[in-house]
Amino acid sequence: MRVGFFGVGLMGAPMVERLAMGGHEVMVFNRTRDKAEAIRNGKVSAAGSPLEAVRFGECIILMLADFTAIDETLLRPECLEALKDKSVIQMGTISPGQSLEADEKVRAAGGRYLECPVLGSIGQARSGTLLLMAGGDEEVFLDLKWILDRFGPSPRLIGPVGHGAAIKLAMNQLIAAHMAAFSLSLGYIQKSGVDLDKFLSILRESALNAKMFDNKLPRLLERKYDNPNFPAKHLLKDVDLFLGEAQKSGLDAAALAAIKGILEKTIDSGGGEDDYSSVFERIFSG
After folding, report:
1. What pLDDT score was predicted for residue 252?
2. Which residues, 6+ apart, have CB-to-CB distance to 157 below 8 Å?
3. Tens of pLDDT along 44-77?
4. CA 190 to chain CA centroid, nearest Å
């Protein structure tokens, strides 16, 4: 199948590689053209415009940073006009309302729409072991599942459009909360003089442990946050989206609002492109 792929950043690039390995022809579009050119090979070409990628693809996959990027590329009038009889899979993190808006515009143009945000990092994107949370019509999901299988072993249909997006925001809220809580505990242990290995040993035996703690521990101990798996600026965007959803749902999200403040300070201090675990610096420094 010919695939037009939008967004070849940290996650998009290895996902394109998996499509090419699976025998698909891929034309990539990225607003930073150099990134698109960097992954060109026998199966992967670079589009000069969003419209070129749309015209090329039987299926269009979006792995863009936010809804603004989607609106400025795929949802431009000339691209929408070219979507008739094509399928669109939206795989980035946007709000349920934004996904519903994209769905409405794609279907009005004569195309099919499926949201399928992913959970995982660069390693999982390379190995095809991402968790995939689809929202949309079952018929569309089943028709496109064989493409989704390239990215993860068990894509799941959660419900209608918006439901996959909601689960993804709920998961990313947990990323922010877990990272802030672990950073606070780790910082306290280090400053109190308690044996770190004993603390970690007890934590790992408890119901409080999370895999991400050990995944991020080397970064926190070395206080090195370059080569990010998930930049702090993107986590802040997702936290903002969740806070908006929480307000609409009548939920008290004061704890997450405080974490948002820590993320903002992290970014203000130049850490926007660093791994989100760099929130430890703000928490440790007080």
Report:
1. 98
2. 134, 135, 136, 138, 141
3. 999 999 999 999 999 999 999 999 999 999 999 9
4. 32
Whole-angstrom Cα distance, residue 271 to residue 146? 38
Which of these, 252, 273, 250, 272, lies nearest to 263 by C-alpha position? Answer: 272
Residue ranges of E strands in the chain: 2-6, 25-29, 44-46, 59-62, 87-90, 112-115, 118-119, 131-135, 156-159
Distance CA 2, CA 207 (A): 46
Dihedral sign of CA atoms 159, 29, 176, 101 in order? negative
User: What are 209-264's pLDDT values in tens digits?
Assistant: 999 999 999 999 999 999 999 999 999 999 999 999 999 999 999 999 999 999 99
Write the DSSP assignment of 177-192 as a string of letters: HHHHHHHHHHHHHHHH
Could you report the per-residue pLDDT of 159-174, keeping only the tens digit for each?
999 999 999 999 999 9
Q: Please enumerate in sequence order all residues whose Cβ is within 8 A of that of 192, keeping only pairs 6 or more positions apart, or say none.
A: none
